[in-house]
Amino acid sequence: MSFKEVREYAPGDDVRFIDWNVSARIGHPYSKIFEEERELTVMMLIDISSSELFGTSYGRKRDLAAELAAVLAFSAVANADKVGAIFFSDKIELYVPPKKGRQQALFIVREMLGLTPGSKGTNIGAAIRFFSNATKQGCIAFLLSDFLDKNYEDALRVAGKKHDVIGIRLYDRMDKELPNAGLIQLMDAETDATQWVDSGNAYVRRKYEEAFFQRTAYCAEVFKKANSDLLHLKTGDDYINVLRRFFKSRVKGGIK
Length: 256
Description:
Distance between the termini: 17 Å
Helix content: 25-40%
Radius of gyration: 23 Å
Number of helices: 8
Strand content: 25-35%
């Protein structure tokens, strides 16, 4: 709520909003009038760690994140809202303070496409804490990541008390399932560690898939405890329809 004006007190006005200074000066009681602030601030926390460069037949996870960032940024512009971004790996790579306007959205998209991170790892907790410290006013925050990290529960819970946080978990089909391709070498994009895996073994493929669903369950539980929403998007998905259904469901269920 923001202050609009003062007017002469009328029966039914909240006495807590009487402006005593004006009332004493004029000799009659006057009330402060407030109006609801409709302008929103949209912040995007975008993971640009090395694991986001992974992708198979439908492009990389970072490509999907770039498209989502563009859609969200220009949607904010269309609503005359402010939009900002935090690009992070295991450190804050770039902070773009929220502003209005098409040029702001274009700048964020250009940085999303061209920014080279100085580090390979992921630290979601540090990114959320930076966001909480940098953003004093409540806002809508989209956290775009593959969430190949842990120990961000406390940071998310604190942010969720003040902001409307929406996680968008990005994954590739091969994050979930290994192809039946015999002996293959896997490399961790963030640590460069390598491991030989017999993908022709059904047990190995099943354990790989189980690990994916364990991460899924962990993310879901963390967001649930923080009273925040979490979406799952696979590269190649029709993300526009997924977002549309999500926001329609929030309207029906009542926006936070």
